[in-house]
Design a protein that fits this description.
Layout (H helix, E strand, L loop, with lengths): L1 H102 L1
Length: 104
């Protein structure tokens, strides 16, 4: 009977050791899963912040582009107006020269 008790105690100790090993492995897996989840959440937050920052910068760039396009349109109008003014000046100079020539 001594042999049976000795084997039973050894089996019980082996089972307890196996149980402890399994519990430790499960705890380790749970810990690393939590760390992974935390990192994923942090990365999602950072991505959202970067998207928000990108959208702000993109909107600001669009506003600058609109101002530039408006300036271009105004300059085209100014150039047309200047061209027209030059034509009028040229025609006035021509008519003035004609009047001056007639006086002489």
């Amino acid at each position: 009977m001594d042999g049976v008790k000795k084997v039973s105690i050894e089996i019980i100790i082996a089972i307890i050791g196996l149980f402890i090993t399994i519990v430790i492995n499960i705890a380790t897996i749970a810990y690393f899963a939590g760390v992974l989840k935390s990192n994923q959440d942090h990365q999602k937050e950072m991505i959202d912040l970067l998207k928000e920052e990108f959208n702000k910068n993109f909107k600001r760039l669009e506003e600058k582009q609109d101002k530039h396009n408006n300036l271009i349109e105004r300059m085209v109008h100014v150039e047309d107006s200047t061209k027209s003014a030059h034509h009028r000046i040229d025609s006035l100079e021509g008519s003035t020269r004609g009047n001056i020539s007639k006086r002489d």
